[in-house]
Amino acid sequence: MSLLLGTTITVSSNHWMMAWTGLEINTLAIIPLISKSHHPRAIEAATKYFLTQAAASTLLLFSSMTNAWFTGQWDITQLTHPTSCLLLTTAVSIKLGLTPFHFWFPEVLQGSSMTTGLLLATLMKFPPTALLILTSPSLNPNLLTTMAIASAALGGWMGLNQTQIRKVLAFSSISHLGWMTIILLYNPKLTLLTFYLYCLMTSAIFLALNTTKITNLATMMTAWTKIPPLTTTLMLALLSLAGLPPLTGFLPKWLIIQELTKQEMTPVATTIDLLSLLGLFFYLRLAYCATITLPPNSSNHMKHWQTNKSVHILITNLISLSILLLTLYPMIFTTT
């Protein structure tokens, strides 16, 4: 309830103080969920998250106060002072986990459970994204483009060396944030569409991983014995998150590259498109491990034969949507 309240307050507010209040409610609401297991790694993750988010919220409040001092405006859409714009970009980047302020996010996600990690990767990113969209006319385009390309590069590069599934999904989130940020100034609706589709695909993957109790590549290699249909569709959902046509994840990348080309930013579109190939490599590795029938080496994990045959209808619907939504592109194209 507190998470929904904080998100609603931030998204629907016009005043900087109300937006800051919503962000603080969100931060205080998610910390008990992160530290719920009472494991040392979970406590460490909760501490890291609290310190990072508190610093970012303070910086955001300072940027709004600076803007109010020079312009007399507390309205979110009236952020005009250059120093305030720079401070706000930094604060929101810390909250989102954009490069170069990404260091906290993989560690926090790794220390959280699958359901809490799902909240961190989706719902907790919505209020900062909304603030970026509201203030987008005042932000520096060169700074945002540089951070977006750096996020896409680092998300793909760092994900190559991971064996923990949650860390892979964390770097995947950083990479997708780069795609959302690069188109923010030119087509905010496209940023929202990318965010919604990312949340859809990530929710399907997190819930499927939680059902099959997959935490790393070793357990993923033997997960096919539990629910074979779910691991098969999980492979398609991972490829969709990679942006492989003709799956749903290809739609936002297709539209973003099209919009960047219209804005005469073909070199930028080519760069971020080539950087997405790094992410495609580790998604393919995950998809291969999800559907492999025999592990390549001896495994210490006990194989479970058909232990859980029932799959929740929500997971089925989410995975179906995360695979088959590309067919809606003609409708989206005609409405925009």
Task: Describe, in plain words, how this protein is organized in 3D.
It is found in: Mitochondrion inner membrane. Belongs to the complex I subunit 2 family. This is NADH-ubiquinone oxidoreductase chain 2. The two termini are 34 Å apart. The longest helix is centred in the first third of the chain and has 32 residues, at 40-71. This protein has 2 domains: 1-114, no CATH class; 140-335, no CATH class. It contains 16 helices and no strands. Helix 4 runs antiparallel to helix 7 (126-134), helix 10 (188-212) packs across helix 15 (313-324) and helix 12 packs antiparallel against helix 14. Helices cover 72% and strands 0% of the residues. By secondary structure, the chain is mainly α.
Give descriptors for this structure.
single chain; 336 residues; mainly alpha; 16 helices; 0% strand
Order of SSEs: HHHHHHHHHHHHHHHH
How large, in whole angstroms, is the Cα Rg? 20 Å
State the distance separating the first and last CA atoms. Answer: 34 Å
Q: What kind of sheet is the major sheet? A: none
Principal-axes shape call = globular
Q: Tally the structural domains.
A: 2
Q: pLDDT average, as an integer? A: 85
Percent of residues in β-strands:
under 5%
List unreliable stretches of 5+ residues: none
Pairing-aware structural class of the strands and helices?
Answer: mainly alpha
Tally of strands: 0
The number of helical elements comes to 16
The helix fraction, in percent, is: over 70%
